[in-house]
Amino acid sequence: MRLKELRTKKGITQQKLAIDLNLNQNSISRYESGVREADYSTLIALADYFQVSVDYLLERTENPNFYK
User: Fold this and answer.
1) Which of 9, 23, 41, 44 has its CB surrounded by the most CB atoms within 10 Å?
2) Alpha helix positions (H), 1-65
């Protein structure tokens, strides 16, 4: 998952992301390290937050844009 890349590019901490999405900072850390996988609703929330497609977040495409 491209979560860490997107988060650092935006210049925010795991804690800030967790607060913004009403998640636990430990969950963000586990998603970034691959220890845990995000559920469907969390994937959508993360994609919306970073304004990318879920496919981009999951590294299924190199195109970060939403499909329209």
Assistant:
1) 23
2) 3-10, 14-20, 25-33, 40-50, 54-57
Q: Read off the pLDDT of residues 41-62 as tens digits, 9 standing for 90 and up.
A: 999 999 999 999 999 999 999 9
Q: What is the pTM of this model?
A: 0.91
Query: 61, 11, 62, 1: which is closest to 46 by C-alpha?
Result: 1
Q: Where residue 65 falls among pLDDT bands split at 50, 70, 90?
A: confident
What is the residue whose two structure tokens read 């210049």?
Answer: 11
Residue 35 CA from chain centroid, whole number: 14
Token digits of residue 54: 């879920």
Phi (first) and psi of residue 50, to 5 degrees = -90, 0
Contact call for residues 5 and 59 (beta carbons, < 8 A)? no
